[in-house]
Every structure is written in C-alpha cells, then in structure tokens.
C-alpha cells in the first residue's frame, strides 16, 4: 500500500512537471512563430528606429524607444527595490524580534497581494496631481512608473531575500558570534556570503517581475514612445505597448506580428537574466 501511494505521488509530480515543460515549450514556440513575419519583413529596423507609429500610412515599427524605456524603468526600479529589499531582510534576520518579524511579514504578505492595477490607480489619483504643483508638464511619467514598480516588487524582493538569509545554517552564524564578531558583521560577511546565490536569484526574479509588469506602466507611464531626457518625461515600455495595442491590431497584420516581436524581446531579456543568475550561481558554488 505504501509503495502504491509513493508511485502514485511520483507519477503525479512527473505528470505536472512534464505538463509545465510542455506548456513552456509551446509558449516559446507560439511567440517565435507569431514574431517570425515581423523578423523577416522588418529585419533590424525595429532595433534602430525610434518611430513607433503602427497605424500610420506607411506604418513605422521602430522599437528602439520602447526598448530604452523598458530598460530605463527596469534599471531605476531595480536600483531602488533590490538594495531596499536587502536592507529590510537584513533587519528582519538580524535585529527584529519575533513580534516584529510577525508584523512586518504580515504587512509584506498583504502588500504582495494588492493587485497592480490598484497600485497604479492609487498613484494616478493621489500622487500624480501633486506633480502639478511643481510645474511638471506630464503627470504620467517615468518617475511615477518607477515609484509604482518599486512599491509593487518590494514585498517580492524582501520575501525572497529573507528566505535566503534564513536558510543559512544557524551553526555558521553562532561560530562567527563566538569568535567575537558582531551581529552586523556576521550577517554582512558570513550569512550574506553563504546565501549569495539565493540573494542573486532573488534579485533576478525581482528584475523579471519588474520587466513583465504591465498595469502600472500602462496607467502611470504616460504612453509616449519617446526616449526620456528627464525622469518626469512620459514613457511607453514594451509591456505597455503590447497591452494597449494588441486588442486593436488586426490578426496576422504586421502590427500584430510586431507586438509579438516585442514580447519575444521581453522573453529574451528574461532568459538572459535567468541564465546569468544560474551561471553565476555555479561559479560561486
């Protein structure tokens, strides 16, 4: 009876794993297939042209501004979120009492469950009008997009990094403390180094979450396909372009295939980041 239960669980796990792999392969195949006409017809033009006017006659499918906007909002959000997430997880692991941990983790779990559209709408209603007091010409801009993405991804980053620090064997930290090192030095130089692979993976997953987020940048980004010269200029990342235009693009039109090419670019960025994290983990290990 025990063997039957074991083999049933093993078969069930294998089936779900196989289904997940098959779904991923199908997704990648579908995106590449739908992007192929744009790749063949447009060649390198999407990567060198700034002009994204898919409804003009003739249409323009330059994605350089969209790509730059995506990278800008991702880098700025990550520069805020990842260090802040590490500092909070550092405090939770090193200094917080059990009661503080419980309260902070509860708040983080609540924040992580807030829909992104609610965060975007709150920023649009409460924060965006404040910018009018500073003579800022666009009240939907890069700054608000970074603010929203940082707020959205911070609970995710804190949870992952805290788990990485907590997974370090307690004996390792106790040995450092026994040798006279302070809690701060122990966590900074011993615990962090021992959990660096987990922290790096947490950073990559946080970046991937920022790259793939749609509703916040769609609501507060401004929707202008330009390269910003100021943090208060409007932007239009790839995700915003896909979400706002895919419903209007005719199936099998060049506009339709160009939007799938934008999705393929996002997928490639995500895969490159994941590959780098895994490779770095093997080197550090």
Description:
The chain has 285 residues and is mainly alpha-helical. Helix content is 74%, strand content 1%. The protein has twelve helices and two strands, in the order ααββαααααααααα. It has helices spanning 2-42, 45-48, 64-94, 98-112, 116-127, 142-166, 170-178, 183-194, 196-212, 215-220, 238-245, 254-284, and strands at residues 52-53, 60-61. Strands 1-2 form a two-stranded antiparallel ribbon. A hairpin with a 6-residue loop joins strand 1 and strand 2 (60-61). Helix 7 packs antiparallel against helix 8. It is globular. The mean pLDDT is 89.
Q: Helix and strand succession?
A: HHEEHHHHHHHHHH
Decide which structural class fits the backbone.
mainly alpha
The tally of strands reads: 2
Number of helices: 12
> Which percent band covers the strand fraction?
under 5%
N- to C-terminal distance: 41 Å
Helix coverage percent: over 70%
Describe the main β-sheet briefly: 2 strands, antiparallel
**Side-by-side strand order of the widest sheet:** 1-2
Determine Rg (CA atoms, Å).
Answer: 23 Å
Mean pLDDT comes to 89
Uncertain spans: none
* Shape summary: globular
